[in-house]
Specification:
Two copies of one chain form a homodimer. In chain A, about 50% of the residues lie in helices and about 15% in strands. Chain A has about 425 residues and is α/β, with parallel strands linked by helices. The first copy, chain A, has two domains: about 220 residues, Rossmann fold; about 180 residues, Glucose-6-phosphate isomerase like protein, domain 1 (Rossmann fold, 3-Layer(aba) Sandwich), CATH 3.40.50.10490. The first copy, chain A, has a five-stranded mixed β-sheet with strand order 1-10-9-7-8, with helices on both faces. A five-stranded parallel β-sheet of chain A has the order 3-2-4-5-6, sandwiched between helices. Chain A is globular. The interface between A and B is large, with 126 and 126 residues. Chains A, B: Its main location: cytoplasm.
Chain lengths: ~425, ~425
Amino acid sequence: MQKIVLRTQHIEEYANDNAIRSYQQQVSEIHQHLHASISSDTENIPTGWLQDPLEANQDLIAEIECISREICRKSDILIVIGVGGSYLGAKAIHDALGSYFTKKDDVEVIFIGNQLSSDYLNQLMDYIQDKEVYVNVISKSGTTLEPAINFRIIREFIEKKYGFYAQQHIIVTTDQENGLLKKASELNNYRHLTIPENIGGRFSVLTPVGLLPAVVCGVNIRDLLAGASSAATELSSPNLDVNPAYQYAVIRNILLNQGHQVEILSVFEPKLKYFQEWWKQLFGESEGKNHTGIFPTSTIYTTDLHSIGQYVQDGRRFLFETILSIAEPEQDITVPFLADDFDALNYLTDKSLHEINTIAKDATMKAHANGAIPVIELNIEKLDAYHLGYLFYFFMKACAMSAYLLNVNPFDQPGVEEYKKNISSLLNSTSKEYKLS
Amino acid sequence: MQKIVLRTQHIEEYANDNAIRSYQQQVSEIHQHLHASISSDTENIPTGWLQDPLEANQDLIAEIECISREICRKSDILIVIGVGGSYLGAKAIHDALGSYFTKKDDVEVIFIGNQLSSDYLNQLMDYIQDKEVYVNVISKSGTTLEPAINFRIIREFIEKKYGFYAQQHIIVTTDQENGLLKKASELNNYRHLTIPENIGGRFSVLTPVGLLPAVVCGVNIRDLLAGASSAATELSSPNLDVNPAYQYAVIRNILLNQGHQVEILSVFEPKLKYFQEWWKQLFGESEGKNHTGIFPTSTIYTTDLHSIGQYVQDGRRFLFETILSIAEPEQDITVPFLADDFDALNYLTDKSLHEINTIAKDATMKAHANGAIPVIELNIEKLDAYHLGYLFYFFMKACAMSAYLLNVNPFDQPGVEEYKKNISSLLNSTSKEYKLS
């Protein structure tokens, strides 16, 4: 009774059961390597996220819920400061499980520190001027430029606004022991949540990094973690026949070897937009090194059928598509019958919008398959906290397997470090120039 | 004094001046073909958008501004219903020139009809229940499924809410003569704006399709059209040496022939997100046919440097990047000096956020170029209505040239039609099944 159903009817000509099973030996070895790292003492392989996430966070849940209750009681806005893995997971949860339209009594959660637009920050400062604000700054090292600059500016605002009580409004999520943010948090008596040392940024959504923002958004994080916990159990077998996460990893590898170099993660529910962004970081950063890896991109259908759809249907054939679909919506709506039938749509009046959306999905899959695009479908029953937690774990496990199948290390990001060094050195050098002039 | 500066320092090893100039003959022929179509009587080549957009819309501006004044006076919300070319251009203007945070007295513009999520539509119906609403439904044929279904549902809401006065709240943007929407608009006495027959969907942003929503958003459409008008003049030469739109088209073609099959349009200002989406439709739908074309994708930096940045830096080498940069922000903000320097960022306190963002852009271009990614930069002075109008025209003209260089027709979209037929037939057949059961 797995919570994610992997449908392969449109990829059988590219990756049949035999081709998939031929990876079993390799998959078992990688599986062994991954799981051995949990119990070993070495911290060379940061696989803390592989452990049952419900168990791992058991002692933290009550503390996080307690902080969240205070934030909800005392503030209009929670500003979450973070970038990359300290941003995308929390934003994915916020959008997937929240409302499209903010309701009056909800705490509004605003994500900043992920870019450097001065227009944005100016408008934000105007917007929050007269509001009650809490801040959750998330950064393992505390030295990543974007969140650091944004925190400096927001902290000044908070200190001016709340004076002696400012420290109450700042919650720091950072490393247990090291880093500037940890030091600042001790000096200023900020509340402090820990990012486990053996969990890297893009694998950290089910730690306090994602959990505090999630619970402020009204998400039941016990359900979220329970979903991930089910996944940890159900996806724990090295046997390809019963492990869809590994099947997905193997199929990707087969497709890449056939020249399908771009993967489009497609959804038919716009709420999943930032889940897609989270997924892009997960796979792009884990696999995109040594001049290899599948280039991860995304589309939201049916919107993008009317833009990039033409290319997918009939452009250069180096794509494949993974459709993440949802069986049941939260609420449905029926097409109304109209006496004048001005738009000739009365033939649809026995259908709901979700039924039509599902037919659109099937039509799309068929059309793209006919256009020589391999199409994988991953289907979940509904989009709730439980299934979202399951999805996070599913993709993290699939990603680790997939990267190892490519012979790259899923857990480093040398290219990002290069940019970070690059900008720091440019900033320092111009800084000196400015000071000399 | 061109308004877009094309910087090529990071692509010289891929496409030097000689290589670019070798396209002159071909470019001149295509240019001749395109421009001849304006004055010819045949409507086989829909190049109405090539004409001076200010001149073309002269008689309409006052009418559109008048309707907009009524909407702003009488409503809280304008719902714009459209998909593809009847959506992305207007949304691009809305986001690029509007505020990040909606202000109380502004008319809120909500775009629907571009997807089929029942959760979204349900939440929207709740949200607008007690608000004053106008609707602008945009569809050339009136038969595209997503906007048609959404309009049917919204029209019912408007008729229940306003009764006899409902027709006053609906403005139709559609074909001059044909289509269901045109007929409905006559029968119901809706106000009606025309999409010129010789302008296809993805080239229609500077017609009433984009202009009415734009002016409701507070955009000065005279400036927008003036920018496009300047572009029409400045980019009217077939001479590659003085026409950056054609230079861009040629460089893309050279890069594709070298195996750079994916183009990333990157920005450092998140407001441009839907401009990127508009651009993706423009190029994807114009070029992605006959199993050729560059796959268009996008990133928002610095955000995505911390996700897909690793892949761009060091993944499979089949990418190139076009960076659309802005010299001056609307407002800037300075990094404050802090006595405790808790984050060790005092060395930045003589810098503004926009300066740092610009340094990040230069650092990124350098890093990616060093990582064997060709990087083109397109720079505009500032992001205002004038420059945005210029950009729209620039890319449309570059796109037409680029598609012809690939030997594909820039103005059709056979793959999209396939999906449209596909879904209609699936809906009809299940519809019959349902009726039989």
